[in-house]
Amino acid sequence: MNNGRKIKVLVSVIGLDGHFTGAQIVSRFLMDAGMEVVYLGIYQTPEMIVRAAIDESVDVIGISSHASNYGQIGLLIDLMKKNDLVDVPLICGGTIPKGEAEALIKRGVSKIFPPQSTSESIIEYIVSCARG
Amino acid sequence: MKRETDYGYEIKPVYTPEDIADLDYTKDVGDPGAYPYVRGYHPNGYRNRVWTRRMTAGIGSSKRTNEVLKRYREMGQTQGILVICDRPNAMPIDADHPMGRREAGVLGWHGASLLEFEELMDGIPLTGQSITLLGSSAMSCMRLAYVVALAEKRGMDFREVHGSVTEYPFCSTCGQTDHMPLDLLIKLWMDSSEFIVRNKIHMRSGILSQHFQESGGNNAQALAMEIAQLKELLGLLVNERGLDFDDLSLLPYELVSVGSRFFEEIAKVRALRRMYAKMAKETFKAKTDKACQLLISVHTSGRTMTYQQPLNNIARCAIQTLAGAIAGCTAIDNACLDNAHAEPSAFAARMSLNTQHIVSDETGVTDVTDPLAGSYFVEYLTSRIEEEAYKILKQIEDQGGMTAAVKKGYIHNMMEESARKRQKEIESGERLVVGVNELAIPPEEDDEIPIESVVASDSEEIAERMENWKRKRNIPLLKEAIARVYDDAKKGRNFNLMPSIIEAVKAYGTAGEITGVIRMANGYHYDPLEMIECPFAL
Q1: What average pLDDT does this structure show over A12-38?
Q2: Residue A126 pLDDT greater than 90, yes or no
């Protein structure tokens, strides 16, 4: 994949959301699939996530969301645009209701994985869209 | 399909008297109301009192949550209220903090001051029903102070209020994740608990396995965790605060997560009663019967609620409610059918409350106490899960007890490993989940359900109101009260901060301010996120 270079994925929980289980499970199976994961953990502001994405030069950003704080994801999208990270796909997963998911996709999120998504579907998607 | 418990015991096709040949009914089980309380604490079970049937509330402004509580009352919830706090409360930071502005009222009630508690309880009696506030350990002292202050304002004795507004310090390990350092959380939890016990307040403190289990732990682990936590925390109150264990008997309550593995869930709760009774008697030398009884509430499991085909969750909720009722408990709150989507809508809340009433009023479950006792399978499972839990408990104790096990990452690793195992079992089809890996339908055909939501402007409104209101307080009085909290917080781990926190709360000091200066006195930054500075000259 990716000319032999490992795909580098930033995985984070955003804002004041403290639910880390999903992010940790996803991080683990991405690593098992041969990807490099930059796991930021909880209490990451959009500013911190963008900073880390630039410093670590990641190919994909994944946000695990279980606290209904979609405003924070919106701010992250704005900041990514401002910082020229338009070629880095932003993927979200978690308890995001359909209406919110549609609004986030419209705003610039590449893909939203609802709860109970399989690891296979997430891995496949990342392989297909990660920037080269 | 796997035929084994979630903790890996392979289930046989049939159970016979041989499986429980070692069990001595009088010694190991006993009648309801008799030690070791496997069958519950009351000979008459629910005939004395049906469990409290309640729903979680908490979204948007305090006024909006107040309206929800009143609506629940109209729906038939009269025995108790249960309010969950928002994420800024778990830091704790105030709504007007740069991060608070973005999330105040989003995932719960923003109860950062006495003013918000007054608004929450407007037109709602403090007595005659249980008052339960959940959502973070760091807010325990604050919430207890709200109750004391509001009772006083209403001209009543705060000892008349019952319910639970304080919470165990280990929730920060288990997915709830407070931002306060663990040692400080433990200190503040001891302060609130000691205040409750010494003043004989009818308030429980939540020492829960629910967060752990909802974040991935299995049934046996949850049981071990619960006993390990109780042992550690009650031990601290005895050893560091000099309290008598028998006086502590009215303090703890457990919120156990009940999922769909029907018989296992029932066995878990029965085993918990026996394990607690034994610990009380053998470890703490309890003298009274009451001190051997752990109050147990049930939360039907949120993580079993699927995003796909959400109406299927009504069936899950009913099965879990029945399991909780049969297991024997004092209250049940449900994760609603929309749990994987949003906070409970009025539609989902009514469904849950009705489900509980269908179970209590139509099935006959309240007629007979512990109806599954004597079942070869259930008695065997009760003993089996206890055995597994004791093994895990020993491992936790080998780490040096609960606090040490948390600090070493042991608890966290156990939880993560269990969550991963479950994910793999579902993906491989070893465990079936209807609508997910069995009988799935295309997303566009999925059930439409109403979604309860807050918008960014709601948080901003809460923040703006707080900013303006803060300036209108009696500033000299507030400064004096805050300074006292700060000075007292420097007097060491066992100097109780409740009296000074109550005074500061009465002066309308906020969560961010009061816990901020307590943090500073203990050598931490005023702001857990280190974005703002302390506004007081101390």
Answers
A1: 94
A2: yes
